[in-house]
Amino acid sequence: MDSMPINWETLDALIIDFAKSENLIEDSSPTPPSSPSSVSSSSYHSRRIIRRIRRSLEAGDIDAAVDLLLSHAPFVLDDHRLLFRLQKQRFIELLRRGSPEARESAISCLRTALAPCALDAYPEAYEEFKHVLLAFIYDKEDQASPVANEWSEKRRVDIAGLVSTVLRAHLHAYDPVFSMTLIYLISIHKGFCLRQGISSPISDLTQRLLLEERDPPAIPQESLSEAPPFDEVDIQALAHAVELTRQGAVDSLRFAKGDLFQAFQNEICRMRVDVTLLDELVREYCVYRGIVDAGLAYSSEPGMQSPSKSLKVDQSVAGYSLSRDSSHEVQYASKNSDGEVSISTDQRCGSPEKNSDVASMEGIEVELRYACESTSNHEDCSTSSSHQPENLRVPQRYRTNISAERSKRKRWMGRQDDLGFTPDVSCNQTSKGISSNSPVSNTFSSKEKQASEFLVVDANNVDKYEIVLGMKELASKGMAAEVVEEVNVMDPNFFGQNPLLLFQLKQVEFLKLVSSGDCSSALRVACSHLGPLAASNPSLLKALKETLLALLQPDEDALRKGFPLHALATSLQVAIGKRLGIDEPQLMKIMRATLHTHNEWFKLQMCKDHFESLLRIDSLKEVNMPSLAAATTSKSNADSCPSGSSQVTISSSTRMMEDGSSLSQVSSGDVDENAILKVMEFLALPRADAIHLLGQYNGNAEMVIQQIFA
Questions:
Q1: In whole angstroms, how far apart are CA 179 and each of 270, 440, 552, 639?
Q2: Are 322 and 391 in contact, with CB atoms under 8 Å apart?
Q3: Given this model, what pLDDT does residue 557 score?
Q4: 611 vs 625, which has greater pLDDT?
């Protein structure tokens, strides 16, 4: 399958919003009280409170959780069903302590709190109350006892998840849009691959990132026996979007008072992600795209592991100071008459302290040298020798602007919001799953130690990002001639191996000259570059003709209208980054694969995604690419991406139904929408299967249902 183009500017905006919403980056700019940032800050505060309550409940400290609820969300305790569950868990936790004092406290809890709640919580509450009294008789270690489930520490996780679900809905403390979008896309991707028999190239990441467990759903106050006053379209859309039963979708809509989008957000946020891995993916992307400063983005939580080798400070990757014989050298700069910098070598500078000193020097020129041979201690820094040029030179004006460009970037802060919070755990034993993953145990001293270790960042590795980002910046401004000149100075062989990128850049240069009224220079560019490139690649002839049409009607906006500069800049960034040994971020690969399967999934469903606007998925797909850009970007992605990075491998060319007919033979326009909904409702089938069955029975829903139940 071909890789689909993605609007990386939209993804950048979503990532920045996510990082700001979670306080992952330093943002010193003042924001007015009514701005979206202030709303995001309020939501962040609410999410932080929810996390603290969750951790207290998971640790068994019910009193601390109730105190937090009374302080920040007392209305939640008005729900006697939830209050009964909390008091029941409090009773168990008091007994779990095992001391005589705790036993007396448990009896007091039973008399003053649990028994009164059991009378009006819900119909089964009194039976549950009588059942939990058996905890006085049976020990917590007795796995065969009738109350083994009550003693189970999994109950802590369940009650914590339920309270979190209710709080999120009432406080509107939903995850940032990017987080919800990623969860949704991965969920669809996994379902699509399973259904279609497809092996996913990102399965390792998706399995680790999106966890199997979900928070329990909130139960609405109304009776479940009354008929739902909801449109069947909304019920089916919600049920299939987040993998609910029909009754589950009805309950979710009822809890959200019929608001489909709020119900959807409630359900998406019930899905759990590995936050540590998500933060690492975001940080890797931010460094690659120049959102945060690479030199300030390597501090990490203790035990945190980068998801990609591209962000690891490894001398096998950061090969600037590797000589031809692979010996480690740090080289000092001295000015030459040609404006370049020659490098003198000092073998004593292999220490981290020296590298740190080199990193602090601003505005100097360095010669970039690469070695393709692997040593006994390091892996080969490239997949092929052609990807690591032996001698790369970077022009003078690059380095004079590096400090100014880096000063505009954000500083990565990481998740530090709850490091100072340690719940007063009132039980002797805590859940092993909580104690191993909770960042509560991370002390400030360990973070300071970790940060100091990462301050010694390979200056050469940081400079590589600056070179790539500098090229990207020039391309995004339409400075194609400057890009070609500086890339040729850096690596004369680059465009020989990337002729389509050269054609795109020269096309931009041509349009820019036409826009300025210099048609003579534009024609010279066409004759000397565009023509020969199109002659060697006939697929570019059509694009060349379309480009030349700009001569007929010069327009100052021809460049803006005729070419997506940001898409070109990203393609250039990926290609040059690979040339320098920088892999594209894992997040880019995830987005390509999941957006592609999102397209394919809704082709099967033969309908539009109800939630794509809410999650900005439609904006991520909006890339105004002319035919040239679409063709060349697809080819460029195929050339630059590793095998399988942005594609999925299909186990069979066409998935056939059991009777041998293809799903694509039936169009949703040929079948009545009410019939589709009726079959989906009665048979609990996906939309695509309902349409296929209706196609077999001439659109008659009753006949389909009769045949299935016959």
A1: 12, 23, 47, 30
A2: no
A3: 59
A4: 611
Do residues 207 and 268 lie in contact, with contact meaning Cβ atoms separated by under 8 Å? no
Residue reference for tokens 């045949």: 707
- Start-end of H helices in 275-351: 275-289
Q: What letter represents residue 425's amino acid? A: V
The β-bridge partners of 214 are 271
Summarised one tens digit per residue, pLDDT across range 19-57 is 999 999 886 655 555 555 555 678 889 999 999 999 999
The closest alpha carbon to 62, from 421, 420, 425, belongs to 425
Distance, CA of 131 to CA of 153 (rounded, Å):
17
Confidence of residue 150 (pLDDT cuts 50, 70, 90): very high
DSSP state of 25: B
Burial readout 388-410 (b: 16 or more C-beta within 10 A, e: otherwise): bbeebbbbeebbeebeeebeebb
Mean residue pLDDT across the chain? 74
Nearest to 410 by CA among 37, 11, 16: 16
- Closest by CA to 312, choosing from 125, 583, 566, is 583
C-alpha span between 382 and 269 (Å, rounded) = 40
288 within 8 A of 577, measured Cβ to Cβ: yes
DSSP 678-705: HHHHHHT--HHHHHHHHHHTTT-HHHHH
What tokens does 195 get?
Answer: 């259904």
Q: Two tokens at 710?
A: 């016959």
DSSP 296: G
Contact assessment for residue 269 and residue 180, using Cβ atoms and an 8 Å cutoff? yes
Position 183 confidence tier, pLDDT thresholds 50, 70, 90: very high
Q: Which of 175-184, 205-214, 220-229, 671-680 has the lowest mean pLDDT?
A: 220-229
For tokens 């460049």, the residue is 559
637 token code pair: 């992605």
Axis-axis angle for helices 352-360, 459-476 (nearest 10): 30
pLDDT at 543: 86
180-189 per-residue burial string, b: 16 or more CB within 10 A, e: under 16: bbbbbbbbbb
Using CA atoms, how far apart are residues 324 and 538, in angstroms rounded to an integer? 39
Residue 333's H or E segment, with its range, is: strand 330-335
Spatial contact of 470 and 398, defined as CB atoms under 8 Å apart: yes
Q: What is the pLDDT of residue 198?
A: 87
**Is the Cβ–Cβ distance between 340 and 615 less than 8 Å?**
no
Predicted pLDDT at 108: 93
pTM for the structure as a whole: 0.73
Query: What residue type is 421 in one-letter code?
Result: F
Res. 435 pLDDT band, cuts 50 70 90: very low
Structure tokens at 703: 């006949």
CB 328 within 8 A of CB 313: no
Nearest alpha carbon to residue 460 among 373, 381, 570: 381
Q: Which long-range contacts (CB under 8 A, 24 or more apart) does 434-441 make?
A: 434/55, 434/58, 434/59, 434/156, 434/157, 438/55, 438/58, 438/59, 439/301, 439/415, 440/55
Percent of the chain whose pLDDT exceeds 90: 39
- Where would I find the H helices in 32-114? 36-58, 62-72, 80-97, 100-109
pLDDT band at 448 (very low <50, low <70, confident <90, very high): very low
Could you tell me how many residues make up the chain? 710
How far is residue 585's CA from residue 310's CA, in Å, rounded to a whole number? 7
Instruction: Give CA separation, 395 vs 36, 332, 401, 453, 460, in Å.
Output: 41, 16, 11, 32, 16
Nearest in space to 681 (alpha carbons), one of 238, 312, 382, 370: 238
C-alpha separations of 12 from 7, 265, 282, 292 in Å: 9, 22, 10, 11
* pLDDT tens digits along 551-605: 877 665 556 555 678 888 888 999 998 888 888 899 999 999 999 999 999 988 8
Q: Which residue has the higher pLDDT, 3 or 637?
A: 3
- Looking at residue 35, its amino acid is S
